[in-house]
User: Fold this.
Amino acid sequence: MPSHNIAVRKDVYGALEREKRPGESFTKLLIRLLQQRGPLEELSGSWSLAARKAQREWKSLRGTGSRR
Assistant:
């Protein structure tokens, strides 16, 4: 299966790492979180203040660029 690398800030990585279950991959973590909680931009609202700032940045960038 093809894979892609993504870049996230250290605070976001730390938040994801804290959410991971023992033996769970980041891929499985993201799938689980998206299935349980809805869209990723809603997910960041449950994290720290830094994550809420990232959510605002994400929303401002959402309309830019193209999707493949």
Remarks:
- The chain has a mean pLDDT of 77.
